[in-house]
Design goal:
This protein has about 325 residues and is an alpha/beta fold. About 45% of the residues lie in helices and about 15% in strands. Strands 1, 2, 3, 4, 5, 6, 7, 8 and 9 form a nine-stranded mixed β-sheet that branches. Strand 1, helix 1 and strand 2 form a beta-alpha-beta unit. Helix 9 crosses helix 12 and helix 10 crosses helix 11. The longest helix has 22 residues. About 40% of the residues are buried. Its main location: membrane. This is Glycosyltransferase. GO terms for molecular function: glycosyltransferase activity.
Length: about 325
Amino acid sequence: MSTPKIDAVVIGRNEGKRLLACLASLKGQVRHLIYVDSGSDDGSVAAAREMGATVVELDISQPFTAARARNAGLAMLSDDCSLVQLVDGDCIVDPDWFSRAISFLQANPNVAVVCGRRRERFPDASVYNRLCDQEWDTPLGEAKACGGDALMYLAPLRQAGGYREDLIAGEEPELCLRLRMAGWQIWRLDAEMTLHDAQMLRFAQWWTRTRRAGYAFAEGATLHGAPPERHWVAETRRALLWGMGLPFAIALSSLVTSWALVALLIYPAQLLRLSRRLGWQTAIFSLLGKTPEALGALDYHWHRILGRKRGLIEYKS
């Protein structure tokens, strides 16, 4: 079986040395290397060109999204490209990833997208990095979605219309949903794929990222919440219930009787339940995260009423 033609699309904004490491990990592994820059001011554009990448600079007058950047890179690929590796600019691709992924794809013609294990490079740098590393550890086998790093067949990706550019987050699950509806499969392989550098060292960074996830949940549920997919409906409801509904109901009830505050015990009970499955640290942040998720969901619906999108240019994972 002939070796497929593989190109790569890397996206980034002010990734600095991480971008150079990302591009270096792809050189010699792919045919064409495309780098799409979203308004960097740290010399990323010049550095990428020096490393031999074809650079696309996005128009800064339009809102940046990861989906828009990826589509701009995909538009640069020639029709003879078979596979495209999508990579975030703060990731390094494992040297053995392509051989493992290509072998699987060639043996499974119904699969359009494969991803492997994305790991945090410095999981012990902060609790937030560690939470990211746990988040990347998704179940093996056929999956509903991939993340930002994945190897895809270009033809079905283009037939599906590419990424939805107006999504500020959650663009990969939304694309994978459309691919699955077209009859394609998504698989997570038991193979090392990328090393990611979150550099998430402050609570505020975690809060913003989690709030953005809530925004994506609500938007995804609005787009594809109908049966049979029910895309992110449960995630949105959980966020609104635990992060907003219950606290508001308890606070309102306490104005009538102070006994209503006893209902707050539902939170330590939920924490205990989650800790048995996730461990204490992850359980605490999972429950705590319902508040920023709920705020993000409400943010989406508020902006939807106003008829405009929230301008989030930071699409770090």
